[in-house]
Amino acid sequence: MRRAACAKAILTAIGIDNVDDVGAVPHEFIDAGDRVIVPVRMHGRLRDSGEPVAYELVQVWLGRNGKAIRLVTYPDREAAIADATVASAI
Asked: How many domains would you assign to the chain?
């Protein structure tokens, strides 16, 4: 999936579906064992007004055998790290 299409799907999944020209800019990639924690800035323009908007969120990608198999999105870094740490211990 292209980055813009993935960004659009994430915004739609969290209830923000009136945004066009969507993009995502990862800030960093944090190694957490079988997971990668990625703080991301999502951005775009409101469909009705054209006003630019941006959202900060954190993605946790789960990988197996060199492939991403799951994505969970969190509102902040602390929640993402806590969940990734607990999940890795299971």
From this structure: 1
